[in-house]
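Please review this one:
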Amino acid sequence: MGRFFKKKQNLSSNKNESTNETTDKPVLFDSLDKNVETISELFKDVDILRLKYINCCDRRLTCCIIFCDGMVDQSVINESIINPLMLSSVKDTDSVYTLMTQVIQIGGMKETDNVDEIVEAIAYGDTVLFAEGLGQAIILDTKGFQSRPINEPENEKNLSGSREGFTESLLVNLSMIRRRVLTSELKMKSYTIGRRTKTKAYICYMDGLVNKQILSELYRRLDKIDIDAVLDTNYITELIHDSPWSPFRTIGYTERPDAVVGKLLEGRIAIFLDGSPAVLTLPYLFIENFQSSEDYYLNFYYTSFSRMVRIIGFFLSVIVPSVYIAAVAFHHEMMPLQLFINITSERQTVPLPASLEALIMLFVFDILRETGVRMPSNIGQTLSIVGALVIGQAAVEAKLVAAPMIIVVALTGITGLLTPKLNSPIVYIRLMLLLLATAFGFYGIILGVSCVLIHIINLRSFGVPQLTISGKLRFQDIKDTVIRAPWWMMILRPGFAEDRVRSKEGGKS
């Protein structure tokens, strides 16, 4: 990441250079040869650049089309650009307007004299037409580069519901949203991020539902981004989110079109980035870490039970190791007598203290999990299962690890898989609670849990509290949190859709 940012000590020295670049900015001429030479010089050493001269309109006009091979649809160029130009008999060829309205047969076109816009269009798969005697160019939409087919996201698979997932193609992703929301209230505004990559991004929202203060705050933060390249949505997340040092996310992400549409209808904002299948959604509530898009396709009884299981699994994943250490090392009276005798007899043959034993086993489990993720899918799953079984059984037989510790680590790992969106915070919170339990027992656990809860309560996402605690218990405030109420009882939208969020709270903390 660091290599993309400007070095502060070079800003002053580059000031004069940037001024000269602005002064020497290339412009278009009435001469076709000069314009082609200008573009060719800008694309020097780009061997996929293609130039084709055409004598059109009964040889009264000479044109040249420029495009990048492999980025365009050749059939569109041949049938909608070259053939109409060569077969046209239009006599009035002294204006770009005539070529656009009477000759070229293509849907998307635009006239421009901005060289930067022309370069960006060619690099993005468009074709640019220059004509002799005209000081403007025509940008023609001929994009035809290949993209990954639409498949179900690997990390967000559902048993029911839509099987569509976003791809790396920005226009394909936008089309999947557009055909699901057939109203003019759905707004899609383009944005360009990255000084060198000039990556295309789109900000999507429902005009009648979005909180205008949150939208203004988003544009303010996006305008502050100063980076060479934006290759994935996580670049944007790290640059605009609240509480940058917090392990918890304050901006959501998903690869499912149905999930994005659902959030747009709640008044949220979605950020699409070209080249990334992950779409950002904001503001982001803490309860979304335990929600799934499948929750709305199943019976509300089962969904509510599943959410409660995920929440319990999160607490078990971060607390179980520390509770075991506190009970074994400090609070023996908290365990039943027979359980205490069994654990003590098992630990008499183990050389390491319980806390160090837990740290090592959790670290080994994380190694196995990371290895399974990085390996090919057919090998990774086998490696994770066999590795855990072999290492665990061998460690117990060799008297290196007590058998209860294997149970604790297994329970910790399995419950952690219930909430994949909290994988990163779980690791840090679990380690912190384990160290506090090693030093202070249950008092340390209570202290650590209190600090985590205080931090979560103070988290904000673009001015919206991630965990809202009010003195009044209203059903409409909890209808889609720990439980999922039936559709006929979910009447009101979330509170952040109202224009009541103070602008001061939208800044980074």
